[in-house]
Design a protein that fits this description.
The structure holds two protein chains of two kinds.
Chain A lengths: L2 E2 L10 H13 L9 H20 L7 E4 L2 H18 L4 E5 L4 H12 L3 E5 L9 H7 L4 E5 L13 H11 L2 E5 L18 E5 L10 E5 L25 H36 L5 E3 L10 E6 L4 H10 L2 E2 L5 H4 L6 H5 L4 H4 L2 E5 L6 H20 L2 H8 L7
Parallel strand pairs in A: 1-11, 3-4, 3-5, 5-6, 6-7
Antiparallel strand pairs in A: 2-8, 7-8, 9-10, 10-12
Helix pairs in contact in A: 1-7, 2-7, 3-4, 5-6, 7-12, 8-12
Chain B lengths: L4 H8 L12 E7 L4 E10 L2 E10 L2 H14 L4 H5 L3 H7 L8 H21 L6 H4 L15
Antiparallel strand pairs in B: 1-2, 2-3
Helix pairs in contact in B: 1-2, 2-5, 4-5
Classes of the chains: A alpha/beta, B alpha+beta.
The complex binds pyridoxal-5'-phosphate.
Pyridoxal-5'-phosphate binds next to helix 3 of chain A.
């Protein structure tokens, strides 16, 4: 048995998305910008996909700009709002300490170029309150950018409340909904979201395609100059098979959202229940307000990469926020923001389920993880010190 | 694959893993904050390392380098053990990713720390090279030294 439990990293394509993508590659090769009938057929398919995506988040088709994925959408949203703000002498941006690097690194660059960034701290469950946002908004605030749900710990933010505050204060609100799209209902009108990013590969669509929703009237800044595609705001011949595949995947998710949420959530809760018996472990993220498939835990006295590779040996694909897996010397900024000490954050494990996982697979994970944790603790000098009382247990 | 077959072999099937209650020298290096701690135990008879064990908290390469380093000093003289370089450990493992080289440095340091402890316990004189941190602090930039 090999269990894929890393669906927050990316997902397998759904049969509907795969069929639509392949069919588009085979049959719909025209360039939507061409005036002949082959091109116009492609243009029609492009606009149909745009309409599907727009309807799925309660937006207008003309408010949808296709991109190469979540990172590009985040970059374009933030740079656009920053430049619009600058024109009005407003150069203050509000975000949270647990955003994806696509947001945080973009803001870091703006900070170097003179913008002022406020990083709101999160509570122990990774939550932000609308009140925190209200208190942080200033006269010169041009943008609030807060994610819908966190990619590591799954915590879901009070997006509608934040949207209401931003609208009331006249500040643009961008929401990185890459982890939420296809899994949670999104309504940009009801939630008062001005800009929203999503990526197909997180909801069983193809990789390398996503979109930016931009409320009518907000002027976008181009990241890519060239042809007049996407209303002149994103040059380059459209990745039509990907866009069509994304729309098929999204449609499929929307049609089955209620039942798949109930199903995945049940598996998730069983998994959390099954792993929380491991001594000196803790769940990261909000116990209820979390993505249906997200499980994230820290185990004291062990390091995440070795846990991850042992799980792989035992037929389980997972991920970790340890430094060794983050590609830097520090463990995950999200776990540190929750207040986890470095040594605990190194011992984190993220298991993210989808509707393609089964109860047997969850049983396999529940049977395997405690054994691996116990083995690694058995060879860990840190665990020995914790057990002897030479180091205090923190979880 | 991120790691060579040798690294995966020593990670999944580590040699000399365990503790030693009657060790003649114990060396511990690293920092839990940085994500790796290695502890090496040695048993010494007539200047020969007759047995060696290790405990490691860390990533796969930390475990594999500990395992390989213990294999490379087992049955060797203390002098030979002190000559073990991190480079030799890396070569024996058929290489490590660049960002994991510091694990091999830790393994080298753990061996030296165990020998230093053995010398200290037995009142054996040693040179400056064993007295202080051997100067590999760049291997752990985010720490204030270990
Ligand atoms: C919350 C969040 N934002 C942005 C991204 C980046 O998306 P992409 O990989 O499609 O560029 C991801 C994906 O890892 C994500 O989880």
């Amino acid at each position: 048995m090999y269990v894929y439990a890393d669906n927050a990293a990316t997902t397998a394509m759904s049969p509907a998305a795969l069929a639509a993508t392949i069919a588009a590659m085979q049959e719909c090769y025209g360039n939507p910008s061409s005036l002949h009938s082959i091109g116009q057929e492609a243009a029609e398919k492009l606009e149909a996909a745009r309409a599907t995506m727009a309807a799925g988040i309660n937006a207008q088709p003309r408010e949808i700009y296709f991109t190469s994925g979540g990172s590009e959408a985040d970059n374009q949203a933030i740079f656009s709002a920053a430049l619009l703000g600058k024109k009005k002498g407003k150069m203050h941006i509000i975000t949270t300490s647990i955003e994806h690097h696509a947001v945080l690194h973009t803001l870091k660059r703006l900070e170097k170029e003179g913008w002022e960034i406020t990083l709101l701290p999160v509570d122990k469950d990774g939550m932000i309150s609308a009140q925190q946002v209200a208190d942080a908004i200033r006269e010169d605030t041009c943008l609030v950018t807060i994610m819908f749900a966190n990619n590591e710990i799954g915590t879901i933010q009070p997006v509608a409340e934040i949207g209401a505050i931003c609208r009331e204060k006249g500040v643009l609100f961008h929401c990185d909904a890459v982890q939420a799209a296809g899994h949670l209902p999104i309504d940009v009108e009801a939630m008062q979201i001005d800009m929203l990013s999503l990526a197909a590969h997180k909801f069983h669509g193809p990789k390398g395609v996503g979109l930016l929703y931009v409320r009518k009237g907000i002027i976008l800044h181009n990241l890519i100059e060239g042809g007049a595609q996407e209303r002149g705001k994103r040059a380059g011949t459209e990745y039509l098979p990907g866009i069509i595949g994304m729309a098929a995947a999204f449609q499929d998710c929307l049609e089955h959202m209620e039942e798949s949420t109930a199903y995945v959530q049940k598996l998730r809760d069983k998994l959390i229940q099954g792993l929380s018996g491991i001594p000196h472990s803790i769940l990261n993220g909000h116990p209820e307000k979390r993505l249906p498939g997200n499980v994230n835990m820290c185990f004291e006295g062990i390091e995440g990469e070795s846990l991850l590779l042992w799980l792989d040996q035992n037929g389980i694909a997972a991920s970790s926020g340890s430094a060794c897996t983050s590609g830097s010397l520090d463990p995950s900024h999200v776990l540190l923001a929750l207040g986890r000490p470095h040594e605990v954050a190194h011992g984190s494990l993220r298991l993210t389920l989808s509707e393609y996982n089964t109860e047997e697979e969850v049983d396999h994970i529940i049977a395997t993880v405690p054994k691996v944790v116990e083995y690694l603790r058995g060879i860990s000098p840190v665990w020995e010190k914790l057990e002897k009382g030479e180091l205090p247990h923190v979880i | 694959m991120l790691y060579s077959d040798k690294v995966m072999d020593h990670f999944t099937n580590p040699r000399n893993v365990g503790k030693m209650d009657d060790a003649d020298g114990v060396g511990e290096v690293g920092n839990a904050k940085c994500g790796d701690i290695m502890r090496i135990f040695i048993k010494v008879e007539d200047d020969i390392i007759t047995d060696v064990k290790f405990n490691t908290f860390g990533c796969a390469s930390a475990i594999a380098t500990s395992s390989m380093a213990t294999e490379m000093i087992k049955g060797k003289s203390i002098k030979e053990a002190l000559e073990l370089s991190n480079k030799a450990v890396v070569e024996a493992l058929d290489g490590l990713p660049t960002n994991k080289i510091h694990c091999s440095v830790l393994a080298e340091e753990a061996v030296r720390a165990a020998v230093k402890d053995y010398y200290d316990r037995n009142g054996i004189e040693y040179g400056d090279e064993l007295k202080s941190c051997p100067g590999h602090c760049e291997s752990c930039e985010s720490c204030a030294g270990h």
